[in-house]
Amino acid sequence: MSDGLNEISVSFQLKNTGKYAGDEVAQIYVQLPSRNEIMPIKELKGFRRITLKKGEEQEITIKLRKDLLRYWDETQGKFLHPSGTYTIMVGASSADIRLQQSLTIDMNQ
User: Fold this and answer.
1) What is the dihedral angle through the alpha carbons of 22, 60, 7, 104, rounded to the nearest 10 degrees?
2) Nearest-5° angle of CA 71, CA 76, CA 77?
3) Residues 25 and 74 sit within 8 Å (Cβ to Cβ)
4) What are the residues facing 84 on neighbouring strands?
5) Contact predicate 29/97, CB 8 Å
6) What is the pLDDT of residues 8-55, one digit of tens each?
């Protein structure tokens, strides 16, 4: 995972372990830094459809725009971009997370 100025690149290996060629939709979920408010456990922030041959393995990179790492604050009536520790998750669905890593982001940079 790398943290650029305006985006975060999430890279991972994806392998087709099945008997046939097939498609996979790799999904990136993000958990925002904890707050004193009710927050979603994770939110879908990116995805990519990949076709792999039987036994094929590929490095996949999905870029996440930092400006989408936000939440709506009812009291202030606007979106906030919190600094802190984000949890980045990769999976085939929200219930099937295969990789997870924490990343500290300073949104003031």
Assistant:
1) 110
2) 70
3) no
4) 105
5) yes
6) 999 999 999 999 999 999 999 999 998 887 888 999 999 999 999 999
d(CA 109, CA 99): 27
Asked if residues 21 and 52 have their Cβ atoms less than 8 Å apart, the reply is: yes
Q: What is the C-alpha to C-alpha distance for residues 101 and 2, in angstroms, rounded to an integer?
A: 12
- What span, in angstroms and rounded, lies between the C-alpha atoms of 46 and 4? 16
From start to end of 1-109, where are the E strands? 2-3, 7-15, 22-31, 43-52, 57-65, 71-73, 78-80, 84-93, 96-105
With beta carbons less than 8 A apart as the criterion, state whether 45 and 89 touch: no
List Cα–Cα distances, 67 to 5, 7, 87, in angstroms. Answer: 11, 8, 16
How many other CB atoms sit within 10 Å of the CB of residue 74? 8
64 φ, ψ (degrees, to nearest 5): -115, 125
